Amino acid sequence: MTDIKLKIFPWLLAGTLTLGVSLAHAADTIKVGVLHSLSGTMAISETTLKDTVLMLIDAQNKKGGLLGKKLEAVVVDPASNWPLFAEKARELLQKDKVAAVFGCWTSVSRKSVLPVFEELNGILFYPVQYEGEESSKNVFYTGAAPNQQAIPAVDYLMKDLEVKRWVLAGTDYVYPRTTNKILEAYLKAKGVKAEDILINYTPFGHSDWQSIVAEIKKFGSAGKKTAVVSTINGDANVPFYKELGNQGVSAKDIPVVAFSVGEEELSGIDTKPLVGHLAAWNYFMSVKDKANDAFIKDWHAFIKNDKRVTNDPMEAHYIGFNMWVKAVEKAKTTDSDKVIAAMIGIEAPNLTGGVAKMLPNHHITKPVYIGEIQADGQFDVVWKTKGLVEGDAWSDFLPGSKDIIADWADPKIKCGNYNTVAKTCSGQNYK
Amino acid sequence: MLTCPLVRAGFLTLVFAMALLAVPTPARAADDAVARALLAQLREADFSDKARLVEQLAALEHPRIATILKALADSRLYYQEAENRAVIGLDDAPTIAIEDAVGGAALGQAGKRDLEKITANNRLRNLIENRLASLGLASADPGQRRAAVQAFLKNPDPAGTERLRARLAVEPDAGIKALLALALALADLASPEAAARAQAATALGGRLQPELRGPLSRAAAEDPDPAVREAARTALTRTEFRLQLLGWAETLFFGLSLGSVLILAAIGLAVTFGVMGVINMAHGELMMLGAYTTWLTQQWLPVNWSLPVAVPLAFLVAALAGIAIERGVIRFLYGRPLETLLATFGVSLILQQAVRSIFSPLNRSVATPDWMSGTIALGPLEVTLNRLIIIGFCIAVFALLWLALQRTRLGLEVRAVTQNRAMAQAMGVRSARVDALTFGLGSGIAGVAGVALSQLTNVGPNLGQSYIVDSFMVVVFGGVGNLWGTLVAGLSLGVANKLLEPWSGAVLAKILVLVFLVLFIQKRPRGLFPQRGRAAEA
Hints:
B: mainly alpha; ABC transporter involved in vitamin B12 uptake, BtuC; two-stranded antiparallel ribbon
């Protein structure tokens, strides 16, 4: 026992010292929390977002900081472990007293930190496309809601590619299940018959796609144009597309439109068998725009590697960060309540030549793009929405959520799940 | 897209006029000008305009049209702003070798940033494929003729029927002739005469091409003539029956293929866990090392040669890592399974994070060599080549390992040490050395399995984790200490999984297999092929 104490004593000492230093330093800075997994399964996607936030903070400091103070990033590693997300969020809010947190990727990690942010009245910017059915006072959703990604993608397939038969394939967890429920209801509302919809779920990291691809092939040989709408999660996509290529299913016969495959995921894939398949996002690295070119240049300079790609959640953080900066400048304080109130209606440019606006339901306006995968791992935009689409927290196509709206601006409502028929709020801040 | 519509319309008329002028006197220069004008428009057009422009291009009688359209479909057609001309990229480097699209003259190198890609979408690619195919029907190359007929099967175009009929009369190749007959039957399905339709439906029965089933089932449901509907229905039943048989064969193949992957993942563990009794949680990470070795090999060697080189390299890398783990950690923990488990679990985390720090947490892209891509026909059954090769590879690895254990000096010593360590030592076997080499052998095989896995799944820091449970499952089910047990267990679990999957879905199939395994172990704790005799007591 004594032995161990002796051994760890210097470390403890060192720890206290650094803590003291950072406390002394803290007085004249505004702290920004970064809650992204740097180890474990999700590190593949989230590490990049951590770097993005660091780059944005760095750039803001070069412009002179915020309210005359420098910004300081507090980076923690929740290690792809959902309960640890809540613990680290508590640490950021209570111990480090951060003004805002940028973080989370998976829906389950968001659900895990939600009670913490509501209890301690923090601010979270969530940058990833998600299943909707949520609006918290303390969370700003800068990624796409289903009506900003899934529904327009299905519209494109239906109108431009005249798809009549649908395979909804997803990984077995909350985002694909909810999205597919919404899509199924939407397709049926558009007159698609039940026998023309095939729904299929697979476990996380599924690697043996032989039978499923064979089934899709069979389903697609009924003489009607068939497409696959894929909510398959990151990693499992590689063997899926490989198997499609190997079994000779080309994008010309059965196109796959994916909601979770972006530039970052493609950089780990041999893209040959994927060319021509589709993805729906609100941003593509290939979009030609001055703001985007500048962002890519800054990113390459910051990360010191000009082969690194940019992707949609990075843009979401870019928008979210700039919105937060503007809101703090408007409120002239970093006090949570005042910043949350100031956020609504704030506008910040996105990277594709438009302007994103924060809506009363804490979602933002976004353009929707459909891109085709190219051999170099980039997307060519083949379609985009005419204007910006407003994020809808509660889907209009699910029976349970049709009548529910979120509005944090209207003093009569001020709630994330207001039932417009019963004229009541369920009383909770979130569902 | 910003050009004024009026100007554009005027321009189009001009182009049409030029096209009309060009046809009677096919002067190359005039043709060139038309092609260039069309290409200039193609750059600015949106996708519906592009389709029209492609039709116009295809109608031109210009020797370069096929090349240009092919380049457009392959996303290799660019517009060079500075020179105001369309060019074709010949490779895919940051600086691309280009040639003039219309003239065909080589133009040296150009930076990718100075070129604007003329994009195509799937519709356009389909259109181009069709147009190219109809150009290819009279080609001297049988491959092109076959592609032409297949394109017709996919997208029956009534205008092309007569050309197909004419071709059938002169076609020398029997295979293409049969395909042509099918295509014509498909066209006849839309014939105005009921008798011809019924005959066509019968001819199409029992054919497995997926393109044929759609029109046939439409005829069975919607044809105005009851006799035709009946014929189509009978034909469809024949097709369905054959498809059913084929489906069974396919499921069996999928099962064998999954089984072979399970065996590859488990067989190294069968050596370290089964023969030596060490619970090695870092086994998956040794496979990961093998997969990363494959990736590194591909950085140095052309893709087609990299795999044969990667196999021995991966064996070496993983074996050395395994020996280091054995000498550094495990040898102090023999006989203490729980501590071994924890220690090797720690080693697995260290290896994962090391890979994350060295290679980044992003997945690495391992390319599939050409000789492993695509499908091969085993009779009517189309199987994917990479899976077939991996089944063969699995058999080879198994045979080599078995030979090594049965026929070599090391194998003899390994068996001696595992059966009775004290006696083996008394006979002069250096048991510590044997331990290290055995562990190295098992680890090396894990590395080799990693090479195979790199062709099927993601090469990233988490590769090992996804296979470790499966590997233990196979070894425990097969019976600890028995290589044949691992073989049988891997194959049967693979086939069982694939038989269940279409019926229950992938998630439930996995659960069912696990539940079965738990029940089985309750009944027979020592697995399928338990070790008998004195060795079992050790």
